[in-house]
Amino acid sequence: MPLGVPRPLNRYRYGTAWQNGVEFTRWYKTVVNRYRDEFPGVLLGVPGLSPGGDVNLPQVRRMDEWRFAAQCADAIGASDWVGVHAYYVDDGADIDLKPDRRRSMARGRNIIITEGSPANGIRNDGLKLRNTYVRCEKFGFPLMAWLLSGAGAWPNADWVAQNVRIP
User: Fold this and answer.
1) Tens digit of pLDDT for each residue in 42-68?
2) DSSP SS3 for 152
3) Selected residue with higher pLDDT from 38 and 159
4) Do the Cβ atoms of 110 and 80 come closer than 8 Å?
5) Does a structural domain hold residue 1?
6) pLDDT at position 9, please?
7) What pTM value is reported for the model?
8) What's the total number of domains in the chain?
9) In angstroms, rounded to a whole number, what is the distance separating the alpha carbons of residues 64 and 49?
10) Would residue 120 count as lying in a domain?
11) What is the C-alpha to C-alpha distance for residues 69 and 67, in angstroms, rounded to an integer?
12) What is the arithmetic mean of pLDDT over 118-131?
């Protein structure tokens, strides 16, 4: 197919989420190869690894980020950058970045904090976010923050409801 012409959706199989880093790697490398075939020069990253250890609830199942990252080392090796999530619980300067451990895990790839925000139950605040940006910059990690209105299960993170303004 010519570059830029979408393929029919039924050509791709969608199903359940991967159960571990090995399944993720198989899926990710297939996606990466398709994108790179269609869009030479595209930069692709491993999506945000979320902290918090193993979670096994009826509606939520998540593997510890470090074990998952170890299992998908080949996916990280096939990426251009690695996304990670990090949360603050106090003034924003306390965001737990683990820079040395993350750099080792990323194996030379750039690290992007793809979700930098308050931890569950912590109120979002402009000054706290500013402190978070400053801390991430100190370690050379670009930061994305959710600009939320209607944060679903995390109303504390809602920028509109909390009237968040970064000074």
Assistant:
1) 999 999 888 888 888 777 677 899 999
2) coil
3) 38
4) yes
5) no
6) 45
7) 0.82
8) 1
9) 9
10) yes
11) 5
12) 90
Rounded distance between C-alpha atoms, residue 81 and residue 109, angstroms? 5
Q: In whole angstroms, what is the distance from residue 24 CA to residue 38 CA?
A: 21
Task: State which residues form the domain around 30.
Answer: 9-157
- Gap between the Cα atoms of 149 and 161, Å rounded: 7
**Other CB atoms within 10 A of residue 158 CB:** 18
The single residue listed with the structure tokens 């193993």 is 54
- Nearest partner of 167 among 140, 112, 129, judged by Cα: 129
Contact assessment for residue 78 and residue 28, using Cβ atoms and an 8 Å cutoff: yes
Nearest-angstrom CA–CA distance, 46 and 74: 11
> What CATH number has the domain bearing residue 54?
3.20.20.80
Tokens found for residue 96: 């737990």
Residue 124 main-chain phi, psi, to 5 deg: -70, 145
- Residue at 104 is within a domain: yes
163: in domain: no
148 pLDDT band, cuts 50/70/90, is low
